[in-house]
Amino acid sequence: MPLLTKTAIAIFASLTSLFILSKPPAPTAEDLQPSYTTVYEAYEAPVVPTTQAPTTTLKTALKGCDAVFAMAQQVGWDADQLGTLIAVAQRESRCQTDAFNPADTYGQSYGVMQINDFWCKPSRYFKQGYLQAYGLLDTCQDLFDLETNMRAALNIYRYSNGWRAWGGK
Fold first, then answer.
1. How far apart (Å, rounded) are the C-alpha atoms in residues 82 and 97?
2. Does domain 46-166 have CATH number 3.40.50.300?
3. CB pairs under 8 A, 24+ apart, for 113-120?
4. What does the alpha-carbon distance between residue 166 and residue 15 come to, in Å, rounded to a whole number?
5. What is the chain's pLDDT, residue by residue, as a tens digit (169 residues)?
6. How many angstroms separate the CA atoms of 30 and 53, rounded?
């Protein structure tokens, strides 16, 4: 191999190694910020009319999915799960607090999130029932109350590590 070719290869190799072996620049504060990708578009918060008497409660001021959304926020659901929560409530009960399915596969299902009575019936692990053990309700009938249903659903969601109790991941 001619000397000129060897010299060209040596120069190319040394220049390449300068770029490859040099330290990368330190990350900036912007690089260290987590980046989020929105999977679900959030359900916008309902507008409560200001002409109502100040004694009006959340439970009576809003109806349907608007009430479910507001109550979910109130009881502590994460903002990034509210879109999925509304979709599940719409699929399960059309956001109706009095929804009841007496012929569910595993028993009966109650309320907006159609919580199965498996969660509020005695078992060998929970003598009074899982939800009763956490002080969320006294009987399965309490799941017809929107706030109780949202709190119970949040507890089940956390216990199940996500939406598995409703057929999700």
1. 17
2. no
3. 113/88, 113/89, 113/149, 113/150, 113/152, 113/153, 113/166, 115/143, 115/149, 115/152, 115/153, 115/156, 116/165, 119/152, 119/156, 120/152
4. 59
5. 677 787 888 877 776 666 666 566 666 777 666 665 545 455 555 555 555 555 545 545 568 899 999 999 999 999 999 999 999 999 999 999 999 999 887 789 999 999 998 898 888 888 888 999 989 999 999 999 999 999 999 999 999 888 888 887 7
6. 47
Structure tokens at 164: 């598995």
Chain centre distance of CA 149:
15
Q: Which two tokens stand for residue 94?
A: 């059309």
Put the strands of the sheet holding 107-110 in their side by side order.
100-104, 107-110, 115-116
Residue 100, classed as helix, strand or coil, is strand
Picking from 95, 128, 116, 122, the residue whose alpha carbon sits closest to that of residue 164 is 116
